[in-house]
Specification:
homodimer, 10 strands, elongated
Amino acid sequence: MESKGISKAVINRLPRYYRYLGVLMDQGIERISSAELSRRMNVTASQIRQDLNLFGGFGQQGYGYNVAHLYEEIGKILGLDKSYSLIVIGAGRLGQAISSYFGFEKRGFRIEAIFDRNPDKYGGASIRGTRIYPLEDLKEYLKHNRIDIAVLTVPADSARAVTPVIVEGGVRGIWNFAHTDLDVPDSVTVQSVHLSESLMQLSYKINH
Amino acid sequence: MESKGISKAVINRLPRYYRYLGVLMDQGIERISSAELSRRMNVTASQIRQDLNLFGGFGQQGYGYNVAHLYEEIGKILGLDKSYSLIVIGAGRLGQAISSYFGFEKRGFRIEAIFDRNPDKYGGASIRGTRIYPLEDLKEYLKHNRIDIAVLTVPADSARAVTPVIVEGGVRGIWNFAHTDLDVPDSVTVQSVHLSESLMQLSYKINH
């Protein structure tokens, strides 16, 4: 699987292809033409052919794409053939929503632990079987557990404060919901979901 | 305020400028040079000048940008000088997280009502004072209340099923958290937050 030189725009489109291919598989559809995929996804057929040809000739003239094969190959490119250990930092409502969504686990993202400044607030409880630990135990926890991804669902100040602990603890990726950018070394990837900014983009579009 | 012909890429960057300018205001900083803003935002000074000049000469040579003025003008472009009425459809954990986040209200996004297929599940309760109504009342509710934005925090099937009701009810924008695209007329704007896709982009980046 050659995936060098693939543009950021194509990478950003891959999860959407993956989603549509998953729906096709659920519907028992085994192959699909670029024209039909184009109609469903509301993307030009030429863009589909261009994007998918980058991964090496999955489509065959007059036959179309093999749905299961393409789904699997795109999954591999996205790293979904591996599994990842996650921790969630912040057991507030957003942290609870993320921790209790089973869909991530299905894709290989296992939430191993949840941390909160005040775990007593949640009655020493667990969320869907995952225990909530005091935030002060995070450093020690990361010494003994290999964690791939930390999910930050705390306010901006707390997110910036906890980031060096996460980085030192060997975490490779941060899924950041805090309303701030984070300062990390090149070895750590930050993927941010800025909800307020998304809502502002919606208000812009409503007005223009 | 001339904002025609502004590219989508610039629009996508505006909320981030807005966030940084808000932090500067909180810190009591009244003016800032493009060089200093560049250092803080980790964007080239020439991009900053290019982006902000589109809105007509806010920067002055040797003086820099007037933070409060720029903040206000970008806010206007984003439509944040107006207020918006919202409903949240889906009172699950994500719906609760969105409904209880006070930061949106501060920006003029007022959540007027929450709808759920099974409001009894939540004890006929309200979230931060906002009442949860049965989903079957949505159509009638929209006849009597002007709602600008509907937030969808329901599964994909339910999101597609409720969309025609929302569209007929005169809603102008949909903030969609469901793992599906939505079919709407041109008069309605959909802004999607696909959490699974964001996590897949993170796993891609961790592996490359």
